[in-house]
Specification:
The strands form 3 sheets. Strands 6-7-16-15-12-13 form a 6-stranded antiparallel sheet, with no helix packed on it. It has a 5-stranded parallel sheet with strand order 2-1-3-4-5, sandwiched between helices. The chain is 35% helix and 25% strand. The termini are far apart. The protein has 2 domains: 132 residues, Rossmann fold (3-Layer(aba) Sandwich), CATH 3.40.50; 233 residues, Phosphatase 2c, domain 1 (4-Layer Sandwich), CATH 3.60.40. It is of the alpha+beta class.
């Protein structure tokens, strides 16, 4: 990599500055005009560019604008040489991307000092870029681990389950699971931790591990209200010294009994699960029940009693359990799609044939932007 690229249309200035910099031990490449300077910058990837502002054709501002727009040159330190000393001129240069100015006539000691400082700043930028890449690689690895913990689908004679999970960042705060408590009791739950990033992901995994291992003491995991009360005691945000301080989470937790065809459920600040019956019946419209209980999120206040409810699940019914990222999708007109719109769309028998088609519709609503929040969605088809 060539350390310094000098761009100036004046041959005397080029000669004087090149000699002064080479005496300091720098390797200097020289361009005679702005267009040549841009081409050389693309080819050489200099650490620092010294460029005259006033040049015929492509001036210094345009050279700065184009080089700073290139990803490979975005951290290159850019010094503008100028006889223009007005504040508005400096503002214009800084807005274009210049990092430093050097006034004409050029003081050589000041030039050498600015170059030393610029090269130090460039090295710091490079070091930060490397650390950022390492952090992104570690976050990607951690995100892969989180995804590996979450089941994708499960088939049973009584119910077929499909799931999808798309974090809005590499690490999100959603998790879910479904497993058999015994031969006739299927438990399903979805957790949404406040915030994003490492802290939210760690809390989410902790909740997942506790529920999956059924390690809450004195808790009947067939009883959603007991589970939520035990979780609320285990994860209080006000606990002194707790790693999860100031973090809370919402949850929807349900247990389906295959013999009795009953679903017992409780939610804590979570969006309602949507139960669709008569789905696909051409003789009657699909009906939708919103399954939720008026409970506060987990971890906000201690000693809260949580309520549970139950319902009967008819054959061929569908159950959707999801986080709020599924329906809180900004639209081009400034509105948000919303829970009601999501529920109405699901009841249309021509849509939502399987989970893939539901997710495809959500992506269409977001395009061309990524999801603003984590998207977790479970679909259960009852036989």
């Amino acid at each position: 990599m060539t350390p310094i690229l000098l761009i100036d249309d004046d041959p005397t200035t080029r000669m004087v500055l090149t000699r002064a910099l080479e005496e300091q031990g720098y390797n200097v490449a020289v361009a005679k005009n702005g267009e040549e300077g841009i081409d050389m910058a693309k080819r050489l990837h200099p650490k620092l560019i010294i460029c005259d502002w006033m040049m015929p054709g492509v001036d210094g501002l345009e050279v700065c604008r184009q080089t700073k727009a290139m990803k490979a040159l975005s951290t290159t330190f850019f010094i503008l040489l100028t006889a223009r000393g007005a504040v508005e001129d400096r503002v214009m240069g800084l807005d274009t991307g210049a990092d430093e100015f050097l006034a004409k006539p050029i003081d050589m000691d000041e030039l050498k000092a600015r170059v030393r400082a610029g090269l130090r700043i460039h090295q710091l930028s490079q070091d930060l870029q490397k650390q950022k890449q390492m952090l992104e690689a570690e976050l990607s690895e951690a995100a892969g681990y989180v995804r590996s913990l979450l089941p994708v689908s499960r088939d049973h004679t009584a119910v077929r389950i499909e799931a999808c999970f798309v974090p809005c960042q590499q690490l999100g705060g959603d998790c879910y699971d479904f497993q058999w408590l015994d031969e006739e009791s299927l438990v399903m739950y979805l957790v949404d931790v406040s915030g994003h990033g490492v802290g939210a992901a760690l809390l989410s995994i902790s909740v997942l591990n506790i529920l999956r291992s059924r390690s809450l003491p004195h808790t009947n995991f067939h009883d959603p209200s007991q589970v939520l009360e035990a979780l609320n005691q285990a994860f209080q945000t006000s606990s002194s010294g707790s790693f999860y301080e100031e973090k809370y989470f919402t949850i929807w937790y349900g247990v389906y009994n295959t013999r009795r065809r009953t679903l017992t459920y409780a939610s804590a600040g979570h969006p309602p699960a949507l139960l669709l019956t008569n789905f696909g019946n051409p003789e009657s419209a699909a009906s939708l029940n919103r399954l939720n209980t008026p409970n506060l999120p987990i971890g906000m206040f201690p000693d809260i009693e949580y309520q549970a409810q139950h319902c009967t699940v008819t054959p061929s019914a569908k159950l959707y359990i999801f986080s709020d990222g599924v329906y809180e999708i900004p639209q081009s007109d400034g509105t948000v799609w919303g829970l009601d719109a999501f529920a109405d769309w699901l009841t249309q028998t021509s849509h939502a044939d399987d989970l893939a088609s539901v997710f495809e519709h959500l992506q269409t609503l977001c395009d061309p932007h990524p999801f603003d929040d984590d998207v977790s969605l479970l679909q259960l088809r009852f036989s």
